[in-house]
Amino acid sequence: MIKANINLKIIIIEKTKVICGIEMKIKGNVIVLTGGKLDSKSAKTAHGLLRGSERFNVVSIVDKKFSGKHVDIDKHGKIKFTNEKTNIKIFKDLKSFLKHSIKVDYCVIGVASAGGILPEEMREDVILALNNNISIVNGLHSILNQDSQLKKIADNNNVKIHDVRMSKSRDSLSFWSGKIYNVKSPKIVVLGTDCGLGKRTTAKLVVEELEKNDISSDMIYTGQTGWMQGWDYGFIFDSTLNDFVSGELERSIYQCYKDKNPDFILIEGQAALRNPSGPCGSEFLISANVDGVILQHSPKRKHFDGWEHVDAIMPSLESEIDLIKSYGKDVIAITLNTQGMTDQEKIYHKNLINTDFGIPVFLPIDEGMDGIVEILKNKYDN
To answer: Strand 264-268 to strand 292-297: parallel, antiparallel, or no bridges (unpaired)?
Structure first.
């Protein structure tokens, strides 16, 4: 009898994946908190989940600004808030949501706040969720298990706070080894000229376009939303000790290649090569030994996001392409974030950039990624 229990325990341990310090088996229906920011880039975690997740099914949103409306998502992932009834209703607060007796497994904090701190206006809803036996999934930098009030409430109600950005222990981190050179699948990273441009969404759309054409592919996530979407391989870049970022990136790509041997591996980039608040990108170009770059850009953005007050002007698109070339990597496509543009502006910038650089230009959310498959197949002979 004892032996049987031990064997069962071993089987359970072997089948449980642990990534970024929390178990991969977390899955179910969720209510997402966005604190009145649902229509802003601050709600990028919510937007990512709405565009599709293998881990979480979004049942409802809590956002006072759009209370009473419903969420509509088109085939390219464009999100609209409408008066027409859909499967996802928006409530003004968690109290009003609970009155409808809708069953959910988790409450997700769906925003990326300044400094990664839990917005004070969301705290009441988090407490109410815990008191109603709903576990919290937190993608903020702030570790809510270290918040004594919230931890006590969670313990009293026998529910959990899952901090996605909890750093992994030193002994579970990988150092770069060079085995990335054994990966034969073409590796394509989606970089951006700034933060918050939609790099992960573009990578996801490319994977979906490849799969639609019976070409196997996978995406390496590097942020909390990618984990919440349920991708199999990746790590949380900004909660990883700096010395091990390259190694964790290599480990994720290599494991994906060994397990699945996909025709293409897409990689979610982070930040931007020259964003002064957190330059990032050389790890993907060098340590991941990528074969090509898709560059996400916003033609209307003049300053690095959030740094207008210090006049942090974004470098030109041309200089960004040249910088990437200096690493020995080619920009094989440019994708545009068209937030705030008229339809005429979208087409104007698409045609202008294509003419100026001779590089294919896509509008992912407006038009999808039709045509990217041919580009990838022709360049990498797949």
So the answer is: unpaired
Average pLDDT, the chain: 93
Position 12 scores a pLDDT of: 31
- Can you tell me whether residue 347 is helix, strand or coil? helix
Residue 35 near residue 124, CB atoms below 8 Å:
no
Question: 329: closest CA among 184, 187, 197?
Answer: 187
* Identity of residue 349: H
**Per-residue confidence (pLDDT) for residue 113, from 0 to 100:** 85
Domain assignment present for 7: no
* pLDDT recorded at residue 23: 53
User: 140, 163, 186 — which closes off a domain?
Assistant: 163
Indicate the number of domains in the chain.
Answer: 2
The domain containing residue 86 runs over which residues?
17-163
CATH number at residue 60: 3.40.50.720
pLDDT tens for 144-189 read 999 999 999 999 999 999 999 999 999 999 999 999 999 999 999 9
In 281-330, DSSP assigns E strands to: 292-297
Rounded (to 5) percent helix, strand, coil in the chain: 40, 20, 40
Q: What does the pLDDT read at residue 55?
A: 98
Tokens of 121: 């206006």
What is the percent of the chain where pLDDT is above 90? Answer: 91
**Which residues, listed in sequence order, are joined to residue 333 by a DSSP beta bridge?**
294
Burial 52-74 (b: 16+ CB within 10 A, else e): bbebbbbbbbbbeebeebbbbbe
**Structure confidence by residue, pLDDT tens digits, 107-144:** 999 999 878 899 999 999 999 999 999 999 999 999 99
Average pLDDT over residues 345-354: 98
How far apart are alpha carbons 64 and 36 in whole angstroms? 5
CA separation, residue 56 to residues 225, 235, 240 (Å): 11, 18, 24
What b/e string do you get for 99-131 counting C-beta neighbours within 10 Å, with b at 16 or more? eeeeebbbbbbbbbbeeeebbeebeebbbbbbe
